[in-house]
């Protein structure tokens, strides 16, 4: 059979029994070798109406050539003409905008089918746009069967659901085998083929099939991730309360939320709430590259059509990318532009100046905001909305600095302390198990030498030598961190670990002598070897691993493919590894914020995780070394006071502090962070 066996009429309308899809196109497609279609606009929703015909056509190895145009309004056309250097990219973006909007309407089966058509070369798509300010708006269809019979149809119908079913549309049909129609067929085929080959002097044509396939695969992937992570992004009552408080505060404010209670998702859905009434450019800052990667993954799950740009040393093209998107957003205010930057990159003048080129509203979100030192009033002029996030805006006794930080963002609008998070079950409960080792006389001597240098840095309670102070404070902490007995008893310490999987070890940043190699090696390398000797499948997590490597390590750890991770400081802030069951602290700063961040990292909820355990190696000095004792016992008090076994720990702690003739209230936290600053790891 061929077209001649069909009862093909001279015209069809989109109504009644004589409708375009069911009466004409579907029957014809079942005998079609090649279907050439040029339309003003294309909607993938048409697949639902002509699916029967396409399925048969695919079985017969037929192909479809489609030429379509983006739906350009006057602003779009002006943007293309103004940005002629980026003309092709902008045309692609406008067509993609419409294409994605349409394919999102398809169910999963239709979506996969469309992707399969393109992947197998059955459907080939090209974009057409005129060289002047007008739009390409031709509506032509050409069908040829396996006996080379040809049909041409043209008229008001686009390849859309509305064109075939909803709207009142009419097409006229020309049958090539009827007398007098041969010249019409030749003329229309020549017109189409000229367009398809890009030889029409009035119209530019761009290949789009590969881009369409990539976009479809991305939509399919996002749908799968969205379904997989649906439970993850269901907001708790307290997150809804936080968002409402921020909105009520004119989209300004600070969330103080214990580590592990969902600051990231609360911030993302705060953005969702803002976007219900506004369309800002969103700028998100975080301290580390692996954190901005993690933010990007979470943001992508929510803003599936958003344009996300990551700004760090690993993306040297970020300036051009941002500039291009700022231009596009100027002419498409509904476009979602989300820029995720390290704090270091954000602080560069060229970044701020670039963001300031946009006239759009802007939202600034800062994660781990206690590390955000750029509190220039200029930022209040640039950003219309602000949100700060931190579990630890206060550092020990420094309440004033925390208040100043939160005031910059608009004041504290929500507070969820760790005590409440534990009580409500937002974090798992934990056991704290201190492991005591002793200092040596040599270590105590070196500690006292550094203490004397620290004292010499002050005159009348004013620091007169900040450089020496920083160096001496770090050296004193390193003496404790690299205590000899920690190394000599490491096998005994590892043997005390009851949970050999999903285990994290915090190491020092110093070096020690390796008996096997006869050389000095980093502490983290030594511990990695020890863990391997004890049967752990371990990897290190440091600043040396790039962003992708770190995220792969996290994924392998969560899946149980790696049983332990060794780190220095990269695991302290922001990184999401909820499967951690236990941690060993071999090294720690005298920093309240570090205590809190590490504990929150360990206490995140995870399927099958009932509680967690913190093993902490505490170096006890001689009874006259009160300063040293306070540094180590502060951590004991902070970790112990909320632990499940606090009753026993309190007795043990009281016994220890008596030996140093100090009291519980003497165990305070110095605010050293602003003195020490950020370190590489």
TrEMBL record:
Domain of life: Bacteria
InterPro entries the UniProt entry points to: ATP-dep_DNA_Helicase, Helicase/UvrB_N, Helicase_ATP-bd, Helicase_C-like, P-loop_NTPase
GO MF annotations in UniProt: ATP binding; DNA binding; helicase activity; hydrolase activity
Helicase ATP-binding domain boundaries: 244-411
One Pfam family hit: Helicase_C
UniProt keyword Transmembrane present: yes
All residue ranges annotated as the Helicase C-terminal domain in the record: 499-657
Source species of the chain: Clostridium taeniosporum
SMART domains, per the entry: DEXDc, HELICc
Name listed for the protein in its UniProt record: DNA repair helicase
């Amino acid at each position: 059979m061929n077209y001649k066996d069909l009862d093909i009429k001279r015209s069809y309308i989109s109504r009644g029994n004589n409708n375009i899809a069911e009466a004409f196109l579907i029957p014809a497609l079942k005998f079609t070798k090649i279907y050439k279609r040029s339309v003003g606009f294309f909607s993938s929703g048409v697949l639902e109406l002509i699916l029967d015909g396409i399925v048969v056509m695919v079985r017969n190895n037929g192909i479809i050539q489609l030429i379509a145009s983006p739906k350009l309004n006057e602003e779009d056309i002006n943007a293309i003409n103004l940005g002629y250097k980026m003309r092709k990219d902008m045309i692609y973006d406008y067509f993609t905008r419409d294409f994605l909007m349409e394919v999102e309407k398809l169910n999963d089966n239709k979506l996969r089918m469309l992707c399969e058509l393109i992947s197998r070369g059955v459907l080939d798509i090209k974009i057409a746009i005129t060289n002047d300010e007008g739009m390409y708006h031709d509506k032509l269809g050409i069908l040829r069967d396996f006996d080379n019979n040809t049909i041409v149809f043209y008229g008001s119908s686009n390849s859309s659901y509305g064109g075939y079913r909803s709207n009142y549309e009419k097409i006229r049909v020309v049958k090539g085998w009827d007398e007098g129609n041969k010249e019409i067929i030749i003329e229309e085929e020549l017109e189409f083929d000229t367009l398809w080959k890009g030889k029409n002097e009035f119209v530019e044509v761009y290949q789009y099939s590969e881009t369409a396939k990539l976009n479809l695969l991305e939509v399919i992937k996002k749908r799968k991730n969205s379904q997989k992570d649906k439970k993850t992004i269901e907001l708790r009552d307290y997150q809804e309360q936080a968002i409402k408080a921020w909105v009520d505060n004119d989209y300004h404010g600070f969330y103080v939320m214990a580590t592990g209670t969902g600051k990231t998702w609360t911030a993302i859905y705060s953005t969702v709430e803002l976007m219900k009434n506004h369309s800002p450019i969103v700028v998100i800052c975080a301290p580390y590259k692996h954190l901005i990667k993690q933010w990007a993954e979470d943001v992508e799950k929510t803003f599936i059509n958003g344009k996300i740009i990551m700004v760090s040393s690993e993306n040297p093209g970020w300036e051009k990318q941002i500039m291009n998107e700022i231009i596009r957003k100027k002419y498409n205010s509904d476009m979602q532009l989300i820029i995720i930057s390290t704090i270091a990159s954000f602080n560069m003048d060229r970044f701020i100046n670039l963001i300031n080129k946009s006239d759009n509203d802007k939202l600034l979100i800062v994660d781990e905001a206690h590390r955000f030192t750029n509190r220039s009033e200029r930022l209040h002029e640039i950003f219309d909305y602000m949100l700060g996030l931190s579990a630890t805006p206060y550092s020990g006794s420094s309440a004033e600095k925390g208040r100043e930080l939160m005031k910059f963002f608009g004041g504290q609008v929500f507070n969820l302390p760790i005590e409440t998070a534990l009580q409500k079950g937002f974090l798992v409960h934990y056991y704290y198990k201190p492991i005591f080792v002793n200092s040596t006389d040599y270590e105590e001597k070196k500690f006292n030498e550094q203490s004397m240098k620290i004292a010499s840095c002050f005159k009348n309670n004013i620091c007169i030598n900040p450089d020496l102070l920083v160096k001496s404070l770090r050296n004193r902490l390193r003496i404790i961190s690299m205590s000899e007995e920690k190394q000599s008893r490491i096998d005994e310490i590892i043997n005390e670990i009851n949970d050999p999987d999903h285990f994290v070890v915090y190491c020092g940043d110093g070096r020690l002598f390796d008996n096997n190699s006869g050389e000095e090696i980093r502490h983290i390398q030594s511990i990695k070897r020890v863990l391997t000797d004890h049967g752990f499948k371990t990897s290190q997590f440091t600043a040396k691993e790039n962003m992708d490597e770190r995220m792969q390590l996290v994924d392998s750890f969560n899946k149980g493919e790696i049983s332990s991770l060794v780190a220095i400081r990269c695991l302290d802030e922001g990184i999401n590894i909820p499967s951690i069951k236990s941690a060993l602290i071999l090294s720690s700063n005298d920093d309240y914020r570090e205590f809190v961040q590490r504990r929150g990292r360990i206490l995140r909820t995870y399927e099958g995780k009932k509680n967690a355990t913190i093993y902490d190696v505490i170096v006890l000095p001689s009874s006259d070394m009160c300063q040293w004792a306070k540094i180590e016992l502060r951590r004991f008090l902070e970790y112990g006071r909320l632990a499940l076994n606090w009753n026993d720990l309190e007795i043990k702690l009281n016994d220890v502090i008596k030996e140093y003739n100090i009291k519980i209230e003497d165990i305070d936290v110095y605010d050293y962070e602003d003195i020490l600053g950020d370190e590489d790891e």
